[in-house]
Amino acid sequence: MFNGASMEIERRFLIKRIPTNLLTGSKSEKLISAYIERTSKHKLRARKIGNNFLLTEKNGAGVIREEKEREISEEEFNKLSKDAIEVIKKTRYYVPHGNLVLEIDVYEDSIKYPATVEIEFKSKELAASFAPPGWFGEEMAN
Fold it and tell me: What CATH superfamily classification does 3-135 receive?
């Protein structure tokens, strides 16, 4: 079903407030994520990013998780979306931050929270040593 697995090292935070002009000029794209399965240690989702469609499986909990991904057709995405337990629409902004890229997600129609930020790291040590800026809020479980 999937091509190989990779390890994802990521931290995710709520955002207290997005600093003025932070998103201005940043690359962005619309995402639709349809969650087919979601537990504390397993996620299976179909995602539309622009005109691309992906099926992603994540296993594990915490900062380091196994991730498998493959391309799917628009038809497969539409079929999986119909049976999804949750569909999330958001705009993702890619904001440089030193040697890192902040992936800031601004959600459409979210009651839980309006925005989050994810940061992917090359090592567990870099993830552990990351000091979040003051405008970050509470760290979220992955």
Answer: Hypothetical Protein Pfu-838710-001 (2.40.320.10)
pTM above 0.85, yes or no: yes
Q: For residue 58, which of 74, 83, 39 has the smallest C-alpha distance?
A: 39
Q: Which two tokens stand for residue 23?
A: 């998103």
Q: Where are the alpha helices (DSSP H) in the chain?
A: 74-82, 124-129
H or E segment to which residue 12 belongs? strand 3-15
Phi, psi of 26 (to 5 degrees): -75, 145
Number of helices and strands in the chain (H, E): 2, 9
C-alpha gyration radius of the chain: 15
**Residue listed under structure tokens 């090592």:** 123
State the Cα–Cα distance between residues 139 and 142, nearest whole angstrom. 9
Q: From residue 1, give the alpha-carbon distance in Å to each of 5, 36, 112.
A: 11, 15, 33
Structural domain boundaries in the chain: 3-135
75-119 residue pLDDT tens: 999 999 999 999 999 999 999 999 999 999 999 987 778 999 999
pLDDT in tens, 7-29: 999 999 999 999 999 999 999 99
